[in-house]
Specification:
Blueprint lengths: L2 E3 L2 E3 L4 H15 L9 H16 L7 E7 L2 E7 L5 E5 L17 E3 H7 L1 H17 L3 E5 L4 E5 L11 E5 L2 H6 L1 H8 L1 H5 L2 H6 L26 H16 L7 H8 L14 H5 L14 E4 L12 H8 L4 E4 L6 H12 L1 H5 L1 E7 L10 H17 L6 H7 L1 H9 L15 H10 L1 H16 L2 E7 L6 H17 L3 E6 L1 H10 L8 E4 L5 H16 L6 H4 L6 H16 L1 H10 L4 H11 L7 H11 L6 H10 L28 H10 L13 H9 L5 H13 L3 E3 L21 E3 L1 H10 L3 H7 L8 H8 L7 H22 L8 H26 L1
Parallel strand pairs: 5-7, 10-15, 11-14, 11-15, 12-13, 13-14
Antiparallel strand pairs: 1-2, 3-4, 4-5, 6-9, 7-8, 8-9, 16-17
Helix pairs in contact: 1-2, 3-4, 9-26, 10-13, 22-24, 24-27, 25-32, 34-35, 35-36
């Protein structure tokens, strides 16, 4: 039986090879020795049955008579297209050369020397495969089958080797090898490549980074840069969370999520529908609603939240890491529901930094609840009088039980203390009773917030949800818990949450440029003395330099729309990452802050140029681009020995960014359409899959939630390669804004394999130098190399043209040349 998996059915049990062999034996028995079938009869009576009944390809995975550049391929199999089979009539036999020890694997050149009709058929298959981006090709006339790698980058396809079946009996003799190379799963795993390759595939050529001895080294900060970094962290991150200023901070700096972002590259509908595809439409799928702080009324509850509370279910807040779930909750507590919180027993459990070393989430949550009851409400849950008041009824029953001894009227029976100690040791139940007792006695609603669980792994998030579920169901409390969307989906699919039918509320990020501007202005006011936090009264530090730098940065953001565009798109809504980016920018070893301070002090109008921010985003603390730590992705990198792959990622991004019927209303494109589109430009599935994976890992594209790769959540799941994808604002910024700049091309020149040895030699000259003139010459050479590779590739893509990008790159070179000339004039 065939089962549906990732677009086409697959045989999924060990016995399927045996059933395939049984089907083959039947096929051989029913094939006459003196048969004289024409091509159509050969396909109907033999090839169809060989592929489907024997090798496991279901008929709905076939495309037959497919038009490819004016020709018609007999069979195109798989999704994505993976194998093309050309059928020939039975009497069109191939003259296979006689050898002393004939084996299954033969040199293709030896085959074509003795069989002109085989050579013609194989050349035909090569044209079809090249035109459709299909790696494997085959020619079959019934009794004879020749299978080979039809698209390769190390040599011409007909200079390789082929798997050859010479007769009906050889099908049976070598059926295991056929199954291991031509069944759907074997083709997906590219086992034929391993069988037919004498050596491993040709290696990818070297990168310029291999020639630089200190390529991965940090750049060391000057004392000024170190001081600026420390002060930036203090003013931007630490002080705003201090108890004496936090209310003012949220009052001035909180940005709601329902404001339009005019600097976002992607349209507003796609930005708003970021979680729309998280769940499939089904009766047991949870209801997903977007939540804004303006939706909340008294008691911190909108109507949907009130419904969840009455149903004794936790309030699940979904949002990607860094979108502002914690800020939403803190703003709710500090500003929106301030008066209600005063009449509430409010317990905030932070699973971020506070619980980082805790092995058991449940224990940490209970510890925090106990600790906060004492610190905030002066309730010691283990105090004798409090314990006796909680268990008054239980003590009365104990006195009457057979376990208590007789005692005078005003004395406790022996064993009462031990009995109470036993009750208290059940910490979860004891805290539940304690919280209920306080709530009833003080006539206050209990609210428990389990925050930052999304910073923990998949299993910790599940445990946090279960704790919230127990609190909501049994503690007579309102429980909030924050989770990552992928985690929630994965657990609903096959984990702990599958048994719970929740309504979930999504939190979308605020306009990033506005959130950053408010945060920096707040820091500037602290540095300038307009805000007086208690911590600064207790220490003596010089804030002059950081004040000057902050003033210049704030002015630059305010006056330069290109910087606001960079801010709005480069972190894809991860406001936490954006704050880290700009906090780390202040004091970056790749930025000349002495020059910034000098000009700002003398002229009071310095504007930090965009390229200073993008340079830090590209390089971070390193002297050169490091793909593992940089915010940027190298969209010019390759995964195979094919220079055309330099342009594959940009083409993918351009296709996903292209408006049209291939995208649904949320902007997602089905993966089979992506594969088909890219294969039409002669890219093979493995290249496309590798680049999709790389782009997704760096958040340039986003998979739809219902089939997202959950390996990062600690569980095995369907690969994201079989999902729908859409471009993110990060990907759009890379394609439209970053790629055509000197700073980006300069950085990627070190991380991109160079297929032209002469070009690599030129770029290697003075590769260790940071001099701007030498960097420009090196980057110009790299740009010329890319332009030449584009023309050699002969790619005609209606929505992407490297030549247009090259012109924009050249324009950015012109501004660098002008800067160099100004510097030379200044020096003379």
């Amino acid at each position: 039986m065939c089962t549906e998996t990732h677009g086409f059915p697959m045989r999924d049990s060990p016995e399927e090879l045996d059933s395939g062999l049984v089907a083959l034996e039947k096929l051989i028995q029913e094939t006459p020795l003196d048969v004289n079938w024409n091509e159509a009869e050969t396909r109907l009576h033999f090839i169809d049955r060989l592929l489907c009944d024997c090798l496991g390809w279901p008929k709905n995975s076939f495309a037959v008579e497919k038009n490819i550049h004016g020709g018609y391929a007999d069979y195109v199999l798989g999704q994505p297209n993976s194998l093309i089979v050309e059928a020939k009539r039975v009497d069109d036999s191939f003259q296979i050369p006689v050898t002393p020890r004939a084996g299954l694997i033969r040199s293709i050149r030896s085959l074509t020397k003795t069989s002109d009709n085989l050579q013609s058929a194989m050349e035909q298959v090569v044209r079809y495969c090249a035109g459709q981006g299909v790696e494997y090709g085959a020619v079959c006339n019934g009794a004879q089958l020749v299978v080979f790698i039809a698209v390769r980058h190390d040599k011409p396809p007909l200079d390789g080797r082929a798997l050859v079946i010479e007769s009906l009996q050889e099908y049976k003799k070598h059926f295991v090898e056929l199954w291991q190379t031509l069944s759907p799963e074997a083709v997906r795993q590219r086992r034929l490549t391993r069988m037919l390759s004498l050596d491993s595939e040709a290696p990818v050529p070297p990168k310029l980074s291999a020639t630089v001895s200190s390529f991965h080294g940090h750049r060391y900060k000057t004392p000024l840069q170190s001081d600026l970094r420390a002060l930036a962290d203090l003013l931007i991150n630490d002080i705003p969370e201090a108890a004496d200023v936090i209310e003012q901070f949220y009052d001035e700096c909180y940005c709601d999520t329902d404001q339009l972002n005019q600097y976002a590259i992607l349209n507003d509908r796609i930005m708003r529908d970021r979680y729309a595809a998280l769940f499939e439409n089904s009766t047991d799928a949870p209801t997903v609603e977007e939540l804004h702080s303006n939706d909340l009324t008294s008691n911190s509850m909108s109507k949907p939240i009130a419904v969840e509370a009455l149903a004794k279910r936790p309030i699940v807040l979904l949002g990607d890491t860094g979108v502002g779930k914690s800020s939403f909750l803190k703003n709710l507590i500090i500003r929106k529901a301030k008066s209600e919180i005063q009449n509430t027993i409010y317990l905030m459990v932070d699973l971020g930094m506070s619980g980082a070393l805790t092995y058991r989430i449940r224990d940490f949550i209970l510890n925090e609840i106990e600790s906060q009851l004492y610190e905030r409400y002066k309730v010691d849950v283990n105090e004798k009088g409090f314990v006796r008041s909680i268990y008054n009824l239980e003590v009365k029953r104990f006195r009457k039980s057979i376990f208590s001894s007789r005692a005078p009227k005003n004395e406790e029976p022996t064993g009462t203390t031990e009995f109470l100690q036993t009750l208290v040791r059940n910490r979860s139940e004891h805290l539940r009773k304690a919280v209920a007792h306080i709530s009833k006695g003080r006539k206050k609603q209990v609210v428990v917030v389990i925050d930052n669980s999304d910073q923990r792994d998949f299993f910790d998030q599940q445990e946090a949800f279960l704790a919230a579920q127990e609190i909501a169901a049994n503690w007579n409390a309102l429980a909030y818990v924050s989770l990552r969307p992928q985690t929630y989906y994965a657990s609903k699919l096959r984990g702990t949450l599958s048994a719970y039918a929740n309504r979930v509320f999504t939190i979308s990020p605020p306009p990033p440029h506005e959130a950053l501007a408010k945060r920096l202005n707040f820091a500037l006011r602290i540095a300038g003395g307009q805000i007086h936090p208690e911590v600064l009264k207790q220490i003596s530090i010089n804030l002059k330099s950081i004040t000057i730098v902050l003033r210049a940065i704030v002015r630059s953001i305010d006056q330069n729309p290109e910087i606001r565009r960079f801010i709005a798109n480069i972190t894809g809504g991860n406001v936490r990452q954006l704050m880290e980016l700009f906090t780390n920018f202040i004091g970056s070893p790749n930025v000349d802050f002495n020059n910034i301070i000098r000009i700002e002090e003398s002229e009071n109008d310095y504007l930090v140029p965009l390229h200073e921010f993008t340079k830090h985003a590209l390089l971070g603390e390193y002297a050169h681009y490091s793909p593992s730590t940089s915010l940027a992705a190298n969209v010019l990198d390759v995964t195979s020995n094919d220079p055309r792959e330099h342009f594959l990622s940009p083409i993918i991004l351009a296709y996903l960014n292209l408006p049209g019927s291939h995208r649904n209303v949320e902007g997602f494109v089905p993966v089979d359409r992506i594969m088909g589109e890219l294969q039409s430009f002669r890219y093979v599935p493995t290249q496309i899959q590798n680049q999709l994976q790389r782009l997704a890992e760096k958040n340039l594209i986003q998979p739809a939630g219902r089939a997202t790769d959950l390996s990062s959540e600690g569980i095995v799941s369907a690969p994201s390669l079989y999902d729908d994808f859409r471009i993110t604002s990060v990907g759009a910024y890379h394609l439209l804004e970053w790629l055509p700049t000197f700073a980006y091309v300069d950085a990627m020149s070190f991380d991109t394999p160079i297929f032209n040895e002469t070009c690599l030699d030129v770029m290697t000259t003075n590769a260790n130098s940071f001099d701007i003139s030498i960097r420009l010459r090196r980057t110009e050479e790299f740009s010329r190399y890319l332009w030449a590779q584009w023309h050699i590739a002969d790619l005609i893509v209606p929505y992407f043209n490297w030549t247009a990008i090259a012109r924009r790159i050249e324009s950015s070179f012109a501004s660098v040349r002008s800067s160099i000339k100004r510097r030379e004039n200044y020096m003379t």
